[in-house]
Amino acid sequence: MLLEKGADANAQGGLYGNTLQAAAARGGQDGRKMVAMLLEKAADINTQGGLFGNALQAASWKGNKGIVEVLLEKGADLNAQGGLFGNALQAASRKGNKEIVGMLLEKGADVNAQGGLFGNALQAAA
């Protein structure tokens, strides 16, 4: 309803930085539908900002496999830097989300990327 009335799908601000990241963190079927709808309405899949830096990192931390799949299908940057954990691989590694770690590695995530709270994915996993 809000999008139909002209709400900006890329508006910045708040804890999650943008609506796509908030929906990715929400998870579940509702979150997945919201992510798909926002992308359909031209939300920038790689927008930076907020707690997790981007939507892929948020979904990876929260263990939202279905949302991670959608974001990867739609071209999310696997190695985008920023946010609390530095990147999606570090977020999934810290949370112990083995399935998501595997998905990200299979798609080409940089296992040695630096940044974030723990510095790299191996330290995040420790």
From TrEMBL:
Q: Which PROSITE patterns match?
A: ANK_REP_REGION, ANK_REPEAT
* UniProt cross-references to SUPFAM superfamilies, sorted A to Z: Ankyrin repeat
Keyword annotations: ANK repeat, Repeat
> ANK repeats located where?
54-83, 87-116
Where are its TM segments located?
Answer: none
List the protein's name.
Ankyrin
Source taxon at top rank: Eukaryota
Q: What SMART domains does this protein's entry cite?
A: ANK
